[in-house]
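From: lab user (bench 3)
To: helpdesk
Subject: output format question, protein + flavin mononucleotide

Hello, I'm new to running complex predictions and I'm not sure whether the block I got back is the full result or only part of it. Here's what I submitted:
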Amino acid sequence: MDALEAIAKRKSVRDYKKDQISDEAVAAIIAAGQNAPSAGPYHITVVQNRELLQYISNTALEAMKNSGNEFLMSRAALPGYDPLYGAPTLFLLSAPQGPYSLATASCAATCMIIAATALGLGSCYLITPTLAFKADKGLAARAGIPEGYEIMCAVVVGYKAGEKFAVEKVKENTVNYVK
Ligand SMILES: Cc1cc2nc3c(=O)[nH]c(=O)nc-3n(C[C@H](O)[C@H](O)[C@H](O)COP(=O)(O)O)c2cc1C
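Helpdesk reply: Thanks, we reran it on our side. This is the complete output you should expect:
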């Protein structure tokens, strides 16, 4: 699959099979992230430990419920909602606080989800795991996040199971040309 096809095919997947992705796929996705544009240091953590995944999911869900944000609270109230969607692999992107840290981590995350699509895998860019790390200050050490780094965003990857929790995307009137 070429780059344009992978970009066109990529969709947020919110329902995963339990099957783990291969170490080769993990390495290729990390390489894609590391080839992204960057403006400062960042770190990628791969979480495949089921217990830790469940804990991050539970903590993010509670934080969404208590966030005061209408959208997040309505999502968290959906029956069976799991912020990590049962994905077997979670990539956490962390960086020191700085003006370009979120942009840098997000550039890497975008390349990672496109690489995952090219490999025939499902993926989703996530911001909600950051809530779990804000709610539980001990979680960063448990996940091996480097000292002084904060979670900026995350990506889940796995084999797509079904269609759940889709969000409407508006593409009309989002482009203008000045020639
Ligand atoms: C900044 C940002 C944060 C996002 N956070 C989440 C998230 O926490 N959970 C989620 O399911 N999707 C999240 N998304 C994915 C969007 O919901 C999704 O990309 C959008 O609805 C368009 O759908 P598509 O990715 O299938 O094209 C996020 C996207 C962005 C850009």
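A quick orientation on your result: The chain has one domain: 3-158. Let us know if anything else is unclear.
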